[in-house]
Amino acid sequence: MPLLDRDEPRFAEASREMRERRDYVVPYFNDKYRFDKPPFIYWTQMASYRLFGENDFAARFPSGIAASLTAVLLFAWGRRLGRERVGWWAAIIFSLCFQTFQHARAAVADMWLVFFVTAAFWAGYELIADWLGSPKPLTDPRHRKYWWLTFYVALAFAFLAKGPLGWMPLLTVAGMKFVLRGKPLNRRFWFPVGILLTLGIVCLWGIPALVRTNGEFFWVGIGRHVVERSFGAMEGHGGQTFSSYLLTLPFYFVTVFVSFAPWSIKLPALTKRLWRERDGTDKYLIWGTGIIFVLMTIVKTKLPHYTLTAFPLLSLLLARHLFALPGSPKFAVRAAVAAAVVSLGMAFIGFPIFARSFPTVQLFEKSKNDLLPDMHFGAVDYSEPSLVWYFRSRVHGFFWAGKPEQVKGYMAFWGPKFIIMPTDVATKLYPELPPGWKSYTAQGFNFPKGQRVDLTMILKPTND
Question: Could you identify which of 137, 144, 188, 247 might form a hypothetical disulfide with 129, taking C-beta atoms 3.0 to 4.6 angstroms apart as the criterion?
Answer without folding.
Answer: 137
